[in-house]
């Protein structure tokens, strides 16, 4: 499947659709959010893509521990790298969005924005993945590096659950979906997201995720060419 | 009479202010068609990005083929 071209074209078509429909179709008229509600098709998709890429990275780490195949090590590190990149993009886009909604329109102070549990949780998750690359870089022995970083990657993926899915839903948050606000789980709940927006949001997630997977596979293939002498087949 | 009119009009204004369609959106951009420029710019960037990634993909495929021949 990986070397087939159809899913790369699918990714392109879905993203063209995301931009055309995402900018032109009507969205709910809401205070504070105004037109920035369209960021859902871009900012939120970065986080969704990050989750999928980290999950694939986790899968390859488990595969490495089972079969000790160097290819799986390369795959898991490349997917983790792309996942972290998506996470950083999600952070950067969220930062821009905060500036025009929470800070100016809602009158939140910088302090309350910094206490936002989703920001802290996502920062913890990204720092854990940052440590994964530090850990990888500190080994000279290839087998040891692969094994230790595969074990660490499983821990890092397990830490995603409390840091970005559980804790932000338990405590008060400025993000929609926090307890106390009237929205349940706007990203995924059928009743919480406008049906026109859902029609663009879900294809957008698939499109961005496929683009991330594609770039990750390019990275893997390049690493495989570079390490041709290590991998004996 | 005048008093009632005043109450009704204030009520009307406060209602219309809270109504959803008074929320400020980029309607001007949509009505004068400038939104299409934004879409065109974003599409150009997206297409350029994909052409670039595609060309890297093809280069890697070529390298892989060269290596398997050796």
Description:
- The complex is a heterodimer of chains A (233) and B (70).
- Chain A has seven helices and no strands.
- By secondary structure, chain A is mainly alpha-helical.
- Chain A has one domain.
- In chain A, helix 1 runs antiparallel to helix 7 (195-226) and helix 3 (70-103) runs antiparallel to helix 7.
- The radius of gyration of chain A is 19 Å and the shape is globular.
- The two termini of chain A are 21 Å apart.
- Chain B has a domain at 27-70.
- In chain B, 81% of the residues lie in helices and 0% in strands.
- Chain B has helices at 2-18, 27-31, 35-69.
- At the A-B interface, helix 1 and helix 7 of A face helix 3 of B.
Low-confidence stretches of chain B: 11-20
Distance between the termini of chain A: 21 Å
| Helix and strand sequence of chain B | HHH
Distance between the termini of chain B: 98 Å
List keywords for this structure.
heterodimer, A: 233 residues, mainly alpha, 71% helix, 0% strand, globular, B: 70 residues
Q: How are the elements arranged and paired?
A:
The complex is a heterodimer of chains A (233) and B (70).
Chain A: H1 6-24, H2 43-67, H3 70-103, H4 110-114, H5 117-137, H6 142-170, H7 195-226
Chain B: H1 2-18, H2 27-31, H3 35-69
Summarize it.
The complex is a heterodimer of chains A (233) and B (70). Chain A is mainly α. Helices cover 71% and strands 0% of the residues of chain A.
